[in-house]
Amino acid sequence: AKAKRKALQRSVSDLSTAIEQIKERIATLTEDIAVLKKGILALDKSVAEATEQRKKENAEYRKVMANNAAAKEVILRAKKSLRKFYRNSFLQTATPQEDGDAGMPVGPSFVQTQESAVPPANSKPYVKKSAAAVFTMLDVLLSDLDREMKFADREEKDSQEEYEKTMADSQEKRAIDLTSMRDKQGAKADLEGQMEVSHAETKSAQKGVQATETLIQTLHSDCDWLMQYYVVRKEARTDEIDGLVRSMGILDGADYAFIQLGATHARTHRFLSMHAA
After folding, report:
1. Taking residues 78-87, what's their average pLDDT?
2. Which residue, among 69, 64, 51, has the nearest Cα to 155 in the 3D structure?
3. CB within 8 A of 181, min separation 6: which ones?
4. In whole angstroms, what is the distance from residue 44 CA to residue 33 CA?
5. I want to staple 96 with a disulfide (CB 3.0 to 4.6 A). Which of 33, 105, 169, 179 is the partner?
6. In this structure, how many other beta carbons lie within 10 angstroms of the beta carbon of residue 176?
7. CA 188 to CA 34: how far, in whole Å?
8. Tell me, what's the pLDDT at 67?
9. Using alpha carbons only, how large is the chain's radius of gyration in Å?
10. What CA dihedral angle connects 202, 208, 214 and 220, to 10 degrees?
């Protein structure tokens, strides 16, 4: 019983140690899961913010491109109108003018023609220097718009590529973290199951220890009683045996008044030997 009690106590101690180790592992896994969950939430937030920023940048890009395209169209129309205006307004042709009195030509004079005048096919319109400056300014504006649009295109392309790379990296990291979190959650659930089993085994072992303690106490009590009344029981047993021997002798017709002590001992020994057999 004592050996059994010792084995059960050792089992309870081992189970208690295992439970403490499981608790530590569960605490570590719980902390890791919380960190991963927090990281995933932060990653999702950063992805949402990056997506919102990308939408704003794209909207700004579209706005710039639309405004610049509209401005280019206006400038091109202005250039076209100015070319027409300067060609018709400053085109000059030389025509003879007659003398009002004599009816003779007095020499050539330059008469400004109106829109009805059609210049020859191989003639070039005469444009003043101020008109050239206007066209140069418009060309500079067009060049600036083209350069700004090219720069906007390059920025939009770079921003989109960076956004796509960020999204790909974020998705990969999220998948890895999510898998890790699920694995840890599964390991935590397994440990919790093991801890429940260990708790049940501990309770069972503790009950076994208690039962063994009760058995040992009962055995001690019985042994103490036997030790306490051993002499009394021995004397009572001896008297009982003597009484039985005398009774057997009486039944055999013996007269104990004239029986020698040696004979009595021999008969008693024979009786005990017979019953022992």
Report:
1. 84
2. 64
3. 33, 36, 37, 40
4. 16
5. 105
6. 11
7. 12
8. 94
9. 62
10. -110
